[in-house]
Design a protein that fits this description.
alpha/beta, single chain, 7 helices, about 140 residues
């Protein structure tokens, strides 16, 4: 099962944000154990770097955290065409629309997010970390 993982799920796991951390961490563990294929976009990685640098405050720890994540998930490209086509989706937030379009192009089965309602109108179904864990 190929999963496009939303930024908020990764942040929940890495920053141990309650009450979501438990399921987010279990999802990443399942991906590490190859029970599913986890994917993020290159733009998600830049967002994670920006947000986590304020949280971790140590460049080497930030680098290792992101390299460890990259060892577990696939980082998928975002093209100019993706950026243009995201405007055509009926997803209200552009960042979510871009993720949804990339999920479609890369043939993800689900977008894993705790904000499922943000992906109404997405060509790829959204699912919570807890729900995807039940499917695994």
């Amino acid at each position: 099962m190929r999963l496009m993982i939303d930024t908020n799920v990764i942040l929940d796991a890495l920053m141990e944000r309650d009450p979501w951390a438990k399921h987010a961490q279990a999802l990443l563990l399942a991906v590490a154990e190859e029970k599913a294929e986890g994917c993020i976009t290159a733009s998600t990685l830049t967002d994670l770097h920006y947000i986590l640098r304020k949280h971790l405050r140590d460049k080497e720890q930030l680098k290792q955290t992101l390299l460890n994540l990259m060892a577990v998930v696939h980082v998928l490209d975002v093209t100019g065409a993706d950026c243009e086509r995201a405007f055509d989706l009926s997803v209200s937030d552009y960042e979510d629309a871009l993720l949804a379009y990339c999920a479609k192009r890369h043939k993800a089965e689900y977008i894993v997010t705790r904000n499922e309602d943000h992906f109404a109108g997405s060509p790829v179904k959204s699912i919570s970390p807890e729900a995807v864990l039940k499917k695994l």
